[in-house]
Specification:
The strands form 9 sheets. A 6-stranded mixed β-sheet has the order 11-9-10-7-6-17. A 5-stranded parallel β-sheet has the order 2-1-25-26-20, with helices on one face. The two termini are 55 Å apart. It has 34 helices and 32 strands. Helix 25 runs antiparallel to helix 26 and helix 25 packs across helix 29. The longest helix has 25 residues. A hairpin with a 2-residue loop joins strand 9 and strand 10. It is of the alpha/beta class.
């Protein structure tokens, strides 16, 4: 298979098949997040890049002009960190690169140069992508350290600064204490995509100290009932200015990077605090301190105040504590705890007084350690943030939750009853050097003002006009756009573009990767241009049509560049992983809405799920990956593609399981051998050249044509929505069952020359369409089959089959259902009775029963009286009792079966007598009238359900 794949990859490249230029066709421009090539490609990457390729191939076959480009994201600090660790011969790093990424010792010796690492892996990625058969226009390939691209990034940032969207000041960043430098997502072993939360610190008075609780929902203070500590963790007293705070030791390790004046004063016995009372700074109410295992000592301050009406963790912790006699007795708090009841302060449509309780029940959360607790919490917090309204709180009633939150924070800070800190939304966040990161406040930091309300609104407008797949992710985008605050966009060292007005800073990787889709449209021209000629007026004119460029890039080249951009833009689809919804994909909309006119805003986003390996999370750093190149060598690219596309929809998590991959390989082999089987039936080689489907008479042949066209229709609709799994279910897995059944049904007809000719004609029609339908998924196999069968040109450029609605016939499908049902029923009767029949008599329903069915269908519900009355009124049958009995049966059956109208059951069964006789091992006779009915079976015959008598 690998030789066949290489053959077609070479032919595609030589024919420039996937190089896309502007023409008169309707265009599709799609991009996927470009990779950061600091290690070898694994099967997770394979899924990421195969989805857009399948869609690109599908739309190309539909007649669209499709652009699918690729580039390499190499800015940032990861490769510098890797180079340093390899230079100092760090054993863990050497092991990962030798044994996981499979870099030879000779090559690894050159990895002390970060630029060489970038070159090595981007070259390898390019090769593996070609081996996967991706239909990429490689003329547009670039690295984000290329001088031309840097000019583009400088233009973008000057544009944003001119609009007031970039500022300077203090800002929280992910920070590695070991390397003493801010870190971006690509610098991390763990925690990529994790956001930094701004938390409000609430000071609860406890004697001369403050028990300081961290929250990002300070508006819920009005619903507080108690505080939580984790008595198994270490708590300390911290002196800060003229105050004394009680927090955890682990929290101090983070806070010290944000509050330089904090010093440890003494240790605190957390157990001794349980049962004491603190004062709420907003309400002056007293709250008891209680023990809870869910409190994470490393998150926030390690102190949590409890709002059981609106916080699922608090609700379940309080429930657990009330049922824990041992703890209640240990701290002598039983009576006090039993009195605690939730306090409702947020009204949320669709929920009652206590949403936390309802969401806990919805998710089936059992206790504090249940992993579903996190999902329940996230869902409720998002809902209350988006739709919640304050209730039962003087001065706040009717305020939306976000506005109430801002007001409470303002009041707490002004009264010095609160403070602010920052922490990661999830932990751990680990630098590639192995050090756990903290959040640090950096001085004189450049940041993007995602908090700007005007900018947020234009981003909401951008989101509103986009297609989001899957649709339910739209709410996540709405949440994150609203939630995003200012983002640090600069750092001190790494690879990349310097801040154009302050070259001591570099633009960080996520910030330089927001609108690069526009650069793809012009990238193929850059080799002919001096980067010094790319000033702001060049990009203004090309991308914004401001018409003022008069530099060294002359016509017709300049006009070609401008035309290219305007032909391809706006971007039709952006594909990326679900963990980037809160940063990259949201930034993508922010920056487009700020820089481009509305008619150039992106049209759609597709969000991917994550990858598992034999049920476990994939991780290169832990060696738990299968390299994509190894998978290709073991199974072939088409098997890998087929498995990745069939195992889950793109937005679902997929699981690479070797046994299932082997099963997929067998399915593909079956498909490849299908053409040989058709040729064997035909008795001569199959040729698709100038093939046209002739007249088809036999019901079973019309049935398979109906099934095939139904599969085409459903698969096409699925692919339009990026449902690769559903499309393959229709095209391969379900249709294979149809074909297997069809072959079984026609076995007895192959001795008849005329019947055989019609069967061969039908199978050739299916083969011609099926190869094209499978081409986006298994392009190499499809090209090989197409070529062997005299298909014209490349199947990659062949027309996508359109379903023929005239060939989809519900009555034909129902007829075959009746035949299959009879064969099954006969064999079931034989099995139950143990009889070996001589003859089998089949009785079809009389005309009057069909008319009763029509009446029942028109009535539309199981109304026995109306069905009976209308049947008698129309005088359908002489025997009123039979009508009454049959009306009862029909009333039960009419809602269960799919009624497609009256069909000629007698002719259908007569056409299938040879098949039924062969299946039954006996002569089969069909009757329209009971000319022979010794057991009175005829009266049992119903439409679509003939009666059977075995003799």
């Amino acid at each position: 298979m690998n030789e066949i794949e290489k053959k077609w990859q070479k032919k595609w490249a030589e024919s420039h098949l996937f190089e896309s230029n502007p023409d008169n066709k309707e265009k599709i421009f799609l991009t996927v997040a470009y990779p950061y090539p600091s290690g070898a490609m694994h099967i997770g990457h394979g899924r990421t890049y195969t989805v857009p390729d399948v869609y690109a191939r599908f739309k190309r076959m539909q007649g669209y002009n499709v652009l699918f480009p690729m580039a390499w994201h190499v800015t940032g600090a990861p490769v510098i960190g890797i180079a340093k660790r390899i230079e100092r011969k760090d054993p863990w790093t050497l092991n990962i690169y030798e044994n996981v990424h499979k870099v030879s010792k000779e090559e690894l010796a050159k990895f002390t140069d970060p630029e060489y690492i970038v070159k090595y892996f981007s070259t390898e990625y390019h090769g593996v992508m070609q081996s996967m058969g991706y239909s990429i226009d490689w003329r547009r390939e670039f690295r984000t350290t290329d001088p031309h691209y840097k000019k583009f990034v400088e233009w973008q940032f000057r544009k944003l600064k001119s609009k007031g969207y970039i500022g300077k000041g203090k800002h929280p960043v992910k920070y590695c204490p070991e390397e003493m430098n801010p870190v971006g997502d690509h610098d991390l072993l763990e925690g990529e995509g994790v956001a930094i939360n701004e938390l409000t610190l609430v000071k609860f008075k406890l004697g001369d100290d403050y028990l300081v609780a961290a929250t990002f929902r300070p508006e819920t203070l009005f619903g507080a009932t108690n505080l939580w500590l984790n008595p198994d963790e270490e708590y300390i007293r911290v002196k800060l200015n003229d105050e004394s705070w009680i927090i955890t030791r682990k929290a101090f390790d983070n806070i010290i990077h944000q509050k330089k004046d904090a010093v440890i004063d003494s240790s605190i016995d957390a157990n001794g605090l349980i049962g004491q009372y603190v004062k709420n700074p907003l309400t002056d109410e007293e709250h008891i301190i209680l023990p809870a295992s869910f409190v994470d000592p490393g998150y926030g301050s390690g102190v949590v105040y409890s709002v059981p009406a609106h916080a699922p963790a608090d609700y379940i912790a309080l429930k657990d504590l009330k049922e824990n006699e041992e703890l209640l007795e240990k701290y002598d708090i039983k009576e006090k705890v039993e009195k605690i009841e939730p306090i409702s302060i947020v009204k949320l449509e669709g929920f009652g007084k206590f949403p936390a309780q309802e969401i806990i029940e919805k998710f089936g959360v059992k206790n504090q350690k249940d992993p579903r607790l996190s999902d329940a919490t996230n869902e409720l917090y998002k809902l209350e943030h988006a739709k919640g309204v304050m209730a039962n709180i003087p001065d706040y009633d009717g305020l939306k939750v976000p506005f109430a939150r801002d007001e409470v924070i303002k009041n707490l800070l002004e009264a010095k009853k609160g403070d602010v800190m920052y922490d990661f939304a999830e932990k751990p966040v680990v630098c590639r050097c192995g050090t756990e990161c903290v959040v640090k406040i950096l001085e004189d930091q450049w940041f993007l003002k995602y908090s700007d309300e005007q900018w947020k609104q234009s981003t909401y407008n951008c989101l509103a006009q986009e297609n989001i797949v899957p649709a339910e992710i739209r709410a996540n985008f709405e949440y994150y756009i609203g939630w995003l605050e200012d983002w640090a966009c600069s750092r001190r060292f790494g690879l990349g573009t310097k801040m154009p007005w302050d070259n001591q800073w570099l633009i960080e990787p996520l910030s330089d990767s927001t609108i690069y889709m526009a650069y793809y449209t012009i990238a193929k021209y850059m080799k002919d241009i001096n980067p010094d000629d790319l000033d702001d007026s060049f990009f203004d004119d090309v991308f914004l049509d401001l018409g003022k460029y008069s530099g060294n890039v002359k016509d017709p080249l300049f006009e070609d560049i401008k035309h290219e951009f305007n032909y391809w833009y706006p971007l039709d689809w952006r594909l990326s992983a679900k963990d980037l919804v809160g940063n990259h994909l949201s930034f993508h909309m922010f920056h487009h809405s700020a820089i481009f006119p509305e008619y150039k805003w992106p049209n759609g986003i597709v969000v991917f799920g994550m990858g598992l390996l034999e049920g476990n999370k994939m991780s290169s750093s832990k060696g738990n990956v299968i390299l994509l190149n190894d998978a290709i060598e073991a199974y072939g690219a088409d098997v890998v593609r087929l498995f990745l596309m069939a195992s889950a929809e793109p937005w679902q998590d997929f699981d690479w399981r070797e046994n299932e991959v082997k099963g997929t390989k067998r399915r593909l082999e079956w498909f490849s051998e299908f053409a040989d089987r058709v040729a064997e039936i035909k008795g001569s080689p199959v040729s698709l050249k100038d093939f046209k489907l002739g007249e088809v008479k036999k019901p079973i042949n019309n049935w398979i044509l109906s099934q095939f066209n139904m599969r085409i229709k459903d698969a096409t609709e699925a692919l339009e929505g990026f449902q690769t799994r559903k499309a393959l279910q229709e095209l391969l897995f379900i249709f294979k069952k149809d074909i297997d059944h069809y072959f079984h049904r026609i076995e007895h007809e192959l001795e008849d020359g005329e019947a055989k000719e019609e069967i061969s004609n039908v199978l050739t029609y299916i083969l011609c369409g099926w190869i094209r339908l499978m081409s986006p998924f298994v392009p190499h196999t499809s090209e090989e089959l197409w070529s062997k069968l005299d298909g014209e040109g490349f199947v990659s450029n062949a027309q996508w089959p359109e379903y023929n609605k005239n060939l989809i016939d519900e009555k034909v499908q129902k007829a075959e259902e009746i035949v299959q049902g009879l064969a099954g029923d006969i064999n079931e009767i034989k099995k139950i009775t143990g009889a070996e029949p001589n003859k089998i008599h089949i009785y079809v329903a009389p005309e009057w029963k069909w008319k009763v069915f029509e009446i029942a269908k028109d009535i539309g519900r199981p109304d026995i009286g109306r069905i009976m009355g209308e049947s008698i009124k129309q005088n359908l049958h002489d025997n009123k009792k039979e009508i009454a009995d049959f009306a009862k049966k029909v009333a039960r059956e009419v809602t269960k079966i799919k009624y497609v109208g009256q069909i000629d059951e007698c002719s259908i069964i007569e056409e299938s007598l040879d098949f039924l006789s062969s299946e039954a091992g006996a002569e089969v006779i069909v009757y329209e009238k009971p000319t022979y009915d010794p057991k009175g079976k005829f009266k049992n015959a119903m439409p679509y359900k003939p009666a059977i008598y075995i003799e």
